[in-house]
Specification:
Helix content is about 30%, strand content about 30%. It has six helices and eight strands; from the N terminus they run H-H-E-E-H-H-E-E-E-H-E-H-E-E. The two termini are about 25 Å apart.
């Protein structure tokens, strides 16, 4: 297990990591969505180091930056409403990305942001849409949210298409993280019929 010294020195963080370690949140016909563990660090670092994947995410991250990101994830697991999960492909049991719901503030208003990122080897198969739909349904059916948003770089056309396939519609442009992003949104009463086979919430 990676970073045991850090976890031993941080009891609350260790509790959060152990409580949710490897716990499956939900699954689709092709994907398992579960909480992160430190064992996922190398796989996530490889994805974050890919300049193609990270084109609209501030550029590639080095290993240390990804390690700090993991510490941030485990710290935030203690907070209600923070749901960021590892994506595992059932076909080969490989870690292929992450997705989830993260609280954000957009133009001074609280929002709950859907997010998703996949290794590029898994692009073009509808897996990002499948993960996004699972996140959407979990946010509405398990977390009780009435509205979800996706905050997408104005140049990231592929991610915008995923959001629209998941039922979100363009709402406005705003400025976040030093750039212009497009805000896509969906309300619970406008939830489309599921396009993918049954979700199994845990």
């Amino acid at each position: 297990m990676l970073d045991n010294v850090f976890l031993q020195d941080n009891f609350p963080l260790r509790q959060a990591a152990m409580k949710k370690n490897q716990m499956i949140v939900t699954e689709t016909s092709r994907l398992l969505l579960r909480y992160f563990s430190w064992d996922d660090l190398n796989d996530m670092a490889a994805i974050y180091a890919d300049p193609v994947v990270m084109t609209f995410r501030g550029g590639p991250r080095n290993y240390e930056n990804t390690k700090q990101h993991f510490k941030w994830i485990f710290e935030n697991y203690k907070k209600p409403g923070f749901e960021l999960w590892a994506i595992v492909d059932k076909a080969d049991n490989k870690f292929i990305g992450n997705c989830g719901v993260i609280p954000q503030e957009v133009d001074g208003q609280p929002e709950n942001e859907m997010g998703y990122i996949l290794a590029k080897e898994y692009w073009g198969r509808g897996l990002a849409t499948e993960a996004a739909c699972a996140v959407r349904d979990y946010g509405f059916n398990k977390l009780g949210y009435s509205r979800l948003v996706a905050l997408i770089d104005s140049g990231n056309i592929a991610s915008q298409r995923v959001a629209m396939k998941a039922g979100l519609t363009y709402e406005k442009n705003t400025s976040m993280w030093g750039k212009t992003v497009r805000v896509y949104a969906i309300h619970n009463h406008k939830l489309p019929q599921p396009r993918h086979s049954s979700y199994c919430f845990r």
